């Protein structure tokens, strides 16, 4: 426990070493932490680890079916894949590593036993190591974020990249929650990421309602990826073979000391209201006529 | 650092003003508001409108943050822009000039810790999506995002699987209940109303800033805003070039419409990203949606399926878009659009 505290103190210090322009508030320093600060400030961290979250979801091209008992969506015998936004997240991490700015990419998945397949895909794409937190049942983003935070405290990455949303629940929450729990800055809906290792910052272009917003974040930071950030690579055959022997560490939520009981309850899953069937018109004249006289929209 | 402003303007109190949830069981809502050019933005009014459905006697406070006279003007506008608003809270600090998520989430946390609302509501636009979950994490609650229907203080419906299923969820935690709503599901009312009490607030945020705004790149346009236009004209990849996309713009101009695009068209560089309609782009629900050269992929349909009338023009009679269109025309858009331009009446 003491050891943990010591590590925590050292660790919290490395967060407070941004470039001069960003430091604007004095705080208590102990002598030992001052020494640590000086040493860490002299040489920028050489080994930056990137943690990437990957989720196993129903494939984006599948036409989903709601179960007749309204308890959920049919997943039996349905094609499952890595969430497309997670592929983009992993691709970005791999590119950063290949540019020499990170030393290791760790892929993390949180889910049932079968999620290991998605993790193996991530390893085949090029992640160095995998972590699988095995958890069954509906896990809402808050629990996922807490589990992620527990892993961050073990792994101590310098950058976390997640997909902006999972295409099953379309929540778009987890990245922001991880950042909030850690007290790290967030760059969401990223369409461009440029890391500056010297300055220990990252410039993120974000796709927002009004266009493209650029923000600059101190590392360590959390980034969530949007569609146009990159085109993910396919796993090559040699990499698929290599992936089989890459290490995967398993955890349970209990081992990470995270409760997964939720403050949300799914009451039912239903189909959306069906639209009335449409008609085919045979000419522009007919279209204009219908829009004017039938639909009354022009 | 924070600036404390203590302006207390004694104005007519609204008759239905009820005190905050210090009374057990009562509902009180904090709406996270946005403002621009000295006025409250339309999405904020959607959030206030949505708060009505949380329950009777819901007292709504709007939180505005920023700096300077435009903030004060917006606060005055907020005081009279919706009958449900009984309080306006203003946080004045240069932390909020660019509405970054980190100071905003911290502000929401502070306001909640001090005032104890039962609900915190925002709209699920890119601002709400960026801020609300972070604030929820700080408050240790699960937010419910992208809500399309509210049936009481604790039960909400939200789309999943690109809107191909609806999930009804119940919030079983303690206050506050955090939610973001789809503005298309809660259209804002028009007209002004009684002025209510304006309040000011201490804004104490951490002075160490880990993020900073650099710039915004946006297109200047006279087209109506895609998010709340009555008519939307969308082009897909079949337009083949940015030059051809001008046809879509001409048609939009004729109809007084906003211009939308599919992901494919944005990826191909025909138009900027803020025109993308779809599961991960903008969700629109106009009176009339015209789709030209759009195949109708699940992810695109997710963004426009709630439109009142959908028209599709595509060369391929098997395109999935025809399954969701009210009126479909199998034809070449390069012939149909000029014909429409010729035959449609001037707006």
Overview of the structural elements:
The complex is a heterodimer of chains A (298) and B (347). Chain A starts with a helix and ends with a helix. Chain A has a 9-stranded mixed β-sheet with strand order 9-8-7-10-6-1-4-5-11, with helices on both faces. In chain A, strands 2-3 form a two-stranded antiparallel ribbon. Chain A is globular. The N terminus of chain A is likely disordered. Chain A is built from 8 helices and 13 strands. By secondary structure, chain A is an alpha/beta fold. Chain B is of the alpha/beta class and 347 residues long. Helices cover 25% and strands 26% of the residues of chain B. Chain B is built from 9 helices and 18 strands. In chain B, the strands form 4 sheets. In chain B, strands 7-11-6-1-4-5-12 form a 7-stranded parallel β-sheet. Chain B has a 5-stranded parallel β-sheet with strand order 15-14-16-17-18. In chain B, helix 5 links the parallel strand 14 and strand 15. The radius of gyration of chain B is 22 Å and the shape is globular. Chain B starts with 27 loop residues before the first strand and ends with a helix. The N terminus of chain B is likely disordered. Chains A and B meet through helix 5, helix 6, strand 7, strand 8 and strand 9 of A and helix 3, helix 4, strand 7, strand 9 and strand 10 of B. Strand 12 of chain A pairs antiparallel with strand 10 of chain B, so a sheet runs across the interface.
């Amino acid at each position: 426990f003491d050891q943990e505290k010591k590590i925590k103190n050292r660790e919290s210090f490395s967060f407070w070493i941004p470039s001069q322009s960003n430091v604007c508030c004095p705080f208590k320093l102990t002598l030992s932490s001052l020494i640590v600060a000086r040493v860490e400030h002299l040489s920028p961290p050489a080994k930056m680890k990137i943690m990437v979250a990957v989720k196993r979801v129903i494939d984006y091209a599948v036409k989903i079916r709601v179960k007749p008992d309204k308890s959920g969506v049919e997943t039996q015998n349905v094609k499952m894949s890595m969430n497309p936004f997670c592929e983009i997240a992993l691709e970005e991490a791999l590119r950063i590593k290949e540019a020499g700015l990170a030393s290791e990419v760790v892929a993390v998945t949180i889910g049932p036993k079968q999620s290991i397949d998605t993790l193996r895909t991530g390893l085949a794409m090029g992640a160095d190591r995998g972590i699988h937190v095995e958890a069954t049942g509906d896990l809402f983003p808050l629990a996922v974020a807490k589990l992620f935070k527990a892993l961050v405290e073990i792994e101590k990455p310098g950058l976390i990249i997640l997909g902006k949303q999972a295409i099953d629940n379309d929540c778009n929450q987890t990245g922001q929650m991880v950042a909030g729990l850690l007290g790290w800055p967030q760059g969401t809906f990223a369409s461009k990421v440029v890391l500056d290792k010297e300055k220990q910052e990252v410039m993120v272009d974000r796709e927002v309602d009004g266009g493209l917003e650029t923000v600059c974040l101190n590392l360590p930071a959390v980034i969530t990826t949007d569609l146009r950030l990159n085109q993910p690579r396919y796993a090559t055959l040699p990499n698929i073979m290599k992936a089989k022997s890459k290490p995967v560490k398993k955890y349970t939520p209990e081992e990470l000391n995270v409760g997964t009981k939720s403050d949300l309850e799914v009451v039912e899953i239903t189909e959306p209201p069906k639209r009335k069937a449409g008609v085919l018109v045979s000419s522009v004249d007919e279209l204009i006529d219908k829009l004017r006289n039938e639909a009354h929209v022009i | 650092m924070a600036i404390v402003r203590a302006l207390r303007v004694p104005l007519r109190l609204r008759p239905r003003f009820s005190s905050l949830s210090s009374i057990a069981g009562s509902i009180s809502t904090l709406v996270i508001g946005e403002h621009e050019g000295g006025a409250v933005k339309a999405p904020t009014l959607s959030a206030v409108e949505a708060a009505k459905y949380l329950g009777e006697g819901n007292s709504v406070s709007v939180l505005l943050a920023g700096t300077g006279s435009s903030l004060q003007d917006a606060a005055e506008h907020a005081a009279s822009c919706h009958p449900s608003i009984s309080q306006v809270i203003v946080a004045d600090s240069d932390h909020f000039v660019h509405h970054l998520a980190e100071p905003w989430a911290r502000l929401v946390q502070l306001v909640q810790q001090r005032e104890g609302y039962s609900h915190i509501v925002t709209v699920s636009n890119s601002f709400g999506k960026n801020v609300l979950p972070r604030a929820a994490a700080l408050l240790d609650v699960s937010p419910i995002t992208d809500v399309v229907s509210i049936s009481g203080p604790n039960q909400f419906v939200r789309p999943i699987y690109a809107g191909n299923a609806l999930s009804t969820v119940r919030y079983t935690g303690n206050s506050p209940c955090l939610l973001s709503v789809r503005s298309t599901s809660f259209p804002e009312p028009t007209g002004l109303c009684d002025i209510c009490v304006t309040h000011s607030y201490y804004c104490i945020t951490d002075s160490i800033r880990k993020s900073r705004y650099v710039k915004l790149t946006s297109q200047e346009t006279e087209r109506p805003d895609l998010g709340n236009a009555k008519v939307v004209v969308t082009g897909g990849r079949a337009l083949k070039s940015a030059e051809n996309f001008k046809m879509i713009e001409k048609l939009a101009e004729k109809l007084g419409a906003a211009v939308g695009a599919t992901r494919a068209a944005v990826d191909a560089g025909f138009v900027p990203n803020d025109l993308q309609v779809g599961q991960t782009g903008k969700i629109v629900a106009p009176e009339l949606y015209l789709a030209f050269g759009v195949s109708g992929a699940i992810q695109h349909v997710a963004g426009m399926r709630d439109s009142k009338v959908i028209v599709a023009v595509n060369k391929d009679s098997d395109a999935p878009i025809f399954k969701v269109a009210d009126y479909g025309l199998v034809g070449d858009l390069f012939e149909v659009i000029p014909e429409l331009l010729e035959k449609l009446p001037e707006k």
